[in-house]
Amino acid sequence: MAQTLFDKLWTAHLVTALEDGADLIFIDRVFLHERTGSIALKSLEAEGRSLRNPALVFCTMDHIVDTFPGRTDDTIMPSGKDFIQSTRASAHKAGITLFDLGDSRQGIVHVVSPEQGVALPGATIVCPDSHTCTQGALGALAWGIGSTEAEHAMVTGTLRVNRPKTMRVLFNGDLGLGVTAKDMILHLIGKHTAAGASGYAVEFAGDAVEALSMEARFTLCNMAVEFSAFTGMVAVDDTTLNYVKGRPFAPKGALWDKAVSQWRALHSDKGAAFDKEIVIEAQDIKPTVTWGASPEHAIPIDGKVPDPATARSENQRASMKRALAYMDVKPGQILTNLSIDAAFIGSCTNARLSDLRAAATLLNGRHVAKGVKAICVPGSTQVKLAAEAEGLDKIFTKAGFEWRESGCSMCFFAGGEHMGYRERVISTTNRNFESRQGPETRTHLASPLVVAASAVTGVITDPRDLMRGGDGKI
Amino acid sequence: MEKFNQHTGIAAPLLRINVDTDAIIPSREMKRVSKEGLGEGLFAGWRYLAQGAREPNPDFVLNRPEYAGTSILLSGDNFGCGSSREHAVWALKEYGVRAIIAPSFGAIFANNCIRNGLLPIVLPDEAVKALARQVEKDPQAHKVHIDLEKKQVVAPGGEVYGFDIEDGPRDMLLQGLDVIGLTLRHKDEIDAFQAKDREKRPWIYL
Ligand code: SF4
Fold this sequence. Notes:
The complex is a heterodimer of chains A (474) and B (206).
Chain A: H1 5-13, E1 14-17, E2 23-26, E3 29-33, H2 37-47, E4 57-60, H3 80-94, E5 97-99, H4 109-115, E6 124-127, E7 141-144, H5 147-156, E8 158-161, E9 165-172, H6 181-192, E10 200-205, H7 207-210, H8 214-222, E11 231-233, H9 238-244, H10 253-263, E12 276-281, E13 288-290, E14 298-300, H11 314-327, E15 342-345, H12 353-363, E16 373-376, H13 381-389, H14 392-398, E17 402-403, E18 424-427, E19 442-445, H15 448-457, H16 463-467
Parallel strand pairs in A: 3-4, 3-6, 4-5, 6-7, 9-10, 9-12, 10-11, 15-16, 15-18, 16-17, 18-19
Antiparallel strand pairs in A: 1-2, 2-8, 13-14
Helix pairs in contact in A: 2-3, 2-5, 6-8, 12-15
Chain B: E1 6-14, H1 21-24, H2 44-47, E2 70-75, H3 87-95, E3 99-102, H4 107-115, E4 119-122, H5 125-137, E5 144-147, E6 152-154, E7 160-162, H6 167-175, H7 179-184, H8 187-200
Parallel strand pairs in B: 1-2, 2-3, 3-4
Antiparallel strand pairs in B: 1-5, 5-6, 6-7
Iron/sulfur cluster (SF4) is lined by residues 62-63, 108-110, 129, 131, 347-348, 408, 411-412, 429-430 of chain A.
């Protein structure tokens, strides 16, 4: 029978069907970070439980570490040091691999896991972090769990999971100039709501997805959780294999060949049935920004802030009204002349090398507008080093951006550094929830191109205006 | 784990959609590597007037005297969406919440609830709103009753709403099971799976 990619991944990891209706799924990789992994490790220690496969468990420091040059265990975030040192001690005791501060493999978990070849096609990968779905872009089954479930995965090598339904989102055709994977996912969530994929594992497919680079596919899958999906994934093809080849923890030599022969089958068979399908024409997607406080409050960059009167339901109406007040925008307003206070390029969504390159093409020879605070935080230490090797850091700093060490940084506010009270930020991150980036900070989610263009002009800006050579440059 | 069988309690309406885990427990309130000490930070952004300070916002539902002792929350679609932080559940529990009734939940959050003896109940939006309307008249007297065995919510006025929950989570809550222990009963099957899989996919086993 024709199988979906999801069916194949699920079947390959099914240990047994449990008496209670859930399936016992074998877990190939557990990745932890100091924010939520610390507590999982500590509680295992307290209960005197040991890890089944410590070699398959990894940990990084990303969430509350400072991103200033010369950082130490001390953090601006109150008590961050406690999380860092507790994680380090537990990781050593448990015998797992730690990408610590100062290690060139350190960085944001969903960036470093694929980068190091920890996440592999066909693998099951879990992490007590909701954006684990990012890694599904490799043709893997990767999803976010809680700390207690992480303990379960580490001790038993499995998780009890109720099988989700399947959905395919087809992006047909080609993306236009200046339109990126970030715009695809914001467009999708804007059209089909933030709860649109609740209960589904989503496969992204179609010409526009096949044409995406591996890094762009990570961006697409990253926000599957903002669509409420169990996970996101993309079939394995040459793009995937070329990306994985040679990564430190990826198979080599004969093992590589054996792996590839299996990974080649990791796609949905022709005629495979999905429980739901959504079709989107790529040419209909424009650079997309959010106006409100939910990722579903997304509109084309030349669109108007919607009127709550047009809401789909009474509940949506209430949420829209609240968001309008919070964001200080009005129905009918056009976003492209809205002044910003800050621009942020970072996070597991959009801080890989290709993202920094894209932003740099717009920043090269230009300068950030007066009064705009602009910060770039590479997604991993490897991304930072690679960017520096090709001189991107110079472009950013010359343009007036701060250039930081890797970490989650101001993607989220943990009581430490933030952009400022009620500041308006254009951001490449994935969540625009109230106070997510700082106390009452007003976040507009967008692609690195939109963020770079807006940083330069000081107002939310369609990058195509700069790219089409408004002032002669790309 | 704490068992959940029946519960009767004061229910507070927080009728917003997409109440995310950042709102339930802001990251700045997660101060120690611990599951404890989080109750005070529950809904901190809404519950207190100023950042960091602890002056209660009198308008926030849980601060209103008629909702003192709340143990059930009534909310909108997609409750607990966003970050996977289990701290959201630990904070709710420490505050005294035993069940949340909403039309839908963030998936990771719902799982985290089950693992910690908190019951997420899915009821249609109209039912949640009807419950809220009854409760609002006199929250302390108009209590809501939950029976997990029968999979029922009984409104203050006596109306009965049946709800669905998978058998696995239900059993875990009813019996307060240690899930790891339960899974380890399948250790032989896991061992056999791993041995076979190691042959098939040796690169997985570093
Ligand atoms: S970058 Fe942001 S979304 Fe990604 S893991 Fe870090 S805090 Fe979470």
